[in-house]
Specification:
By secondary structure, this protein is mainly β. Helix content is 5%, strand content 39%. The chain has 1 helix and 10 strands; from the N terminus they run E-E-E-H-E-E-E-E-E-E-E. The radius of gyration is 13 Å and the shape is globular. 28% of the residues are buried. It binds zinc ion. The site of zinc ion (ZN) has 8 residues, from loops. Residues 7-120 form the CENP-V/GFA domain.
Length: 120
């Protein structure tokens, strides 16, 4: 059952922090080229479920590749990608949150669903 909880998270150096309501039961581990290299575990949130508490989104460095539909955002100081943002096929903004950047999450207890992003 979908059950969202509130988490706080941020980059490594603390320049950017955020709060997010998300369901870690929907976390994914993706095999696309960037998720592989970054070791990303992702969970998703709508703009209503996500709030940047510290830092400005336009101060983050942006990286795009492939179809350039996802903004991979990372802290210019510590280099950590705590979240990214993109649009769903129907044009809605979504945030992809790096589960490894959330506080108080038992990563070993998660069972992220494998997603074949490499083939997208
Ligand atoms: Zn940082």
């Amino acid at each position: 059952m979908a059950e969202t909880k509130k988490y706080t998270g941020g980059c490594h150096c603390g320049r950017f922090t955020f709060e997010v309501d998300t369901d870690l039961g929907t976390a994914i581990s993706c095999n696309c080229s960037i998720c592989t290299k970054r070791g990303l575990l992702l969970t998703f949130a709508t703009p209503e479920q996500f709030a940047l508490k510290k830092g400005q989104q336009d101060e983050l460095k942006k990286y795009q590749f492939n179809k350039k539909v996802i903004d991979h955002l990372f802290c210019p100081d510590c280099g950590v990608e705590a979240f990214g943002t993109g649009k769903t096929p129907d044009g809605k903004t979504m945030f992809a949150i790096n589960v490894r950047c959330l506080e108080g999450v038992d990563l070993a207890a998660l069972q992220p669903r494998p997603v074949d992003g490499r083939s997208f």
